[in-house]
Structure formats: structure tokens, C-alpha cells
Design brief:
This protein is an alpha/beta fold. Helix content is about 30%, strand content about 20%. The two termini are about 40 Å apart.
């Protein structure tokens, strides 16, 4: 199979312009007015809670859902056009179908390279070489002849990344790629992303609810909880922004809540008094500092809004 013809260069590999989406029968929209861009060659982490719209944004980016409002462009094309041209590689959170078949690792990696090959034809040697090259890039060359169902979680993750990069995409999307992986494994994952970017020039988007994954392996972060709360370098994240983003997880237990998050080192309220102290005014705390979360069960509409001093993306 011949290589994908490189697209016309764009400053932005991926662009969202006023994207909103609601599922039928849902009380609240899954996404509201999302606008930001991912520069060519960048590693972007999309951080947010479960139910915050990350999966919906991925499906829209892959062309698996029809846009209701706004626009998504991948290398200047619609999501479906970009996928047809082989410009997008995707690593899903869960892989079940391939594990149910008696396939070797090489056969799995070859799959996206032979989608147009008649089933009775032999896989060309050049296609096999490209699959082996992709496995080598992720440090899994020795696994090529193993059954796909016999791999460990970490090995399977590398093989799925190899499959995604085998067609040489311009955009690589990864959905919760480090679930169940320890800190050392997350560090190796970050090094792998850096290596792929340097060797392939690929733009990488990592979707996760784990801030360690995002901070270790990404140049910029988009904090998503139905709306875009933050879009900048990981070092610019503040406790206030994280508190606002992840209050949706807490809301599943307590109902809609207001979260006051600030660096513990800057707090003048004793830890024991936080249960009675609703909203402190702390600004500019570094994300690496100890953080105090003060949760109020009052409706968010009745509570003081969380201070968001971190920059947002200007549409």
C-alpha cells in the first residue's frame, strides 16, 4: 500500500470553532461553544472528569458523530475526509474485538494498511515492513509473532499505538492511554510520545482524567467539563481551575456543588475550620503546591463563583 500523500501544510492540525453537541433526551448539553486549536507537531492533553464531554469531543473529531453546531477541521478537512485519507490515527481506551481472534501482533498492526486490499490477496512485503517499523518505533518489535491475546496491558498499549501510527497519520488521538499504568509506566509513555513526535512529526492529542498523564506528556492542556475552562501550558493550571473542572465528579454524589480550591500553603484557615468556611479568596497559587478543597453543598448558582485567573483560549 502506498504512503498517504501529505496534506497541504496548516498552522493548525486540528481546529474547533464554536462546537456544541447535545444527546437526544439529555437535560444538559454534552459540549457548549468549544473553540480552540492544536498546532502542528504539538502534544495536547484534554483533561476533564468522567461525563465532562471528552469522549463526545473525540467522536466528533473522528467523524463518528454528526456536528450540530460549529465546525471541526482536521488538516483543513472535515473529520470524515481526514479519516478516509489516513490522516488520523486512533488508540481507543478498550480493545476487545481483536483479542477475540487468533491474530498475531503483526497482523493487528497491518490492519489499517490493508483496508483496500482484496481478502484473497497476499499482504505485500512492503506493508509487512511498515508494520514491523511501527512496532520497532514503540519498542515492541520482539512481539510481532505473538498472539495478540497473550500480551500484558502495557504491551497491548504499545501495539495499539503501533497500529495507529503504521499509516503515518498527521494526527494521533489517544483515549485514556495510561489507565492502570503505574507512575514509572506513565513516564515511559511520555517519553514514547516525545519520540514519536520527533521521528514522525505527528500532532498528538491525549484525552484523560489523570492529571499526571497530561502534565508529564503534553505541551499544552485543555480543561474540559462541557465547556472549555482552560487552554494553555500545564504549568499555568491553578487549583481554582481544577476545582471547577472536577466539581462535576463530586456533583454526582452531592448534587451541583461549588468547590473552593487553593494552595494549602497560602491558606489562613485552619484545616479543622474548613467545614464551616465556605469561600476563601486565594489567587495565583502554583499547581504544584499542596491544595485544600473546600466543598459547599449549596447549589452552585447560590455560591460565589470559582476564581479563574488562568488564561482561556480566545476564539
Amino acid at each position: 500500500m502506498s504512503r498517504v500523500t501529505p496534506p497541504t501544510p496548516h498552522e493548525h492540525t486540528l481546529e474547533y470553532r464554536g462546537v456544541s453537541f447535545s444527546y437526544p433526551g439529555a437535560d444538559t448539553p454534552a459540549l457548549t461553544s468549544i473553540s480552540f486549536a492544536v498546532h502542528a507537531g504539538e502534544r495536547l492533553g484534554i483533561l476533564g472528569p468522567n461525563g465532562g464531554g471528552k469522549s463526545t469531543l473525540l467522536k466528533l473529531t473522528l467523524g463518528l458523530l454528526d456536528l450540530q453546531a460549529g465546525e471541526v477541521r482536521v488538516c483543513g478537512r472535515s473529520p470524515r475526509e481526514a479519516r478516509r485519507e489516513g490522516l488520523v490515527g486512533y488508540v481507543p481506551q478498550k480493545v476487545d474485538a481483536e483479542l477475540a481472534f487468533p491474530l498475531s501482533v503483526r497482523q493487528v498492526v497491518v490492519m489499517p494498511l490493508v483496508v483496500n486490499l482484496a481478502p484473497w490477496k497476499r499482504v505485500p512485503s512492503e506493508t509487512r515492513r511498515r508494520a514491523d517499523e511501527a512496532l520497532s518505533m514503540v519498542g515492541a518489535a520482539e512481539l510481532a509473532d505473538r498472539p495478540i491475546g497473550a500480551l500484558s496491558g502495557g504491551q497491548l498499549q504499545r501495539v495499539m499505538i503501533a497500529r495507529a501510527i503504521a499509516p503515518r497519520p498527521k494526527l494521533l488521538l489517544l483515549d485514556e492511554p495510561t489507565v492502570g499504568i503505574d507512575v514509572a509506566g506513565q513516564r515511559r509513555f511520555a517519553e514514547l510520545l516525545q519520540s514519536l513526535r520527533e521521528r514522525l512529526g505527528v500532532t498528538i492529542v491525549v484525552v484523560s482524567h489523570d492529571i499526571r498523564t497530561i502534565a508529564a506528556g503534553c505541551d499544552r492542556v485543555a480543561c474540559l467539563a462541557r465547556t472549555l475552562h482552560f487552554h494553555d501550558a500545564p504549568s499555568g493550571l491553578s487549583p481554582q481551575v481544577l476545582g471547577e473542572v472536577f466539581r462535576h465528579d463530586i456533583a454526582e454524589v452531592f448534587g451541583d456543588v461549588h468547590v473552593d480550591a487553593h494552595a494549602a500553603a497560602t491558606c489562613h484557615v485552619d484545616a479543622g475550620d474548613h467545614a464551616h468556611h465556605h469561600c476563601c479568596d486565594h489567587h495565583g497559587a502554583p499547581p504544584s503546591a499542596g491544595v485544600t478543597l473546600n466543598v459547599s453543598a449549596k447549589p452552585a448558582s447560590a455560591a460565589a463563583s470559582v476564581n479563574k485567573e488562568s488564561p482561556r483560549e480566545n476564539a
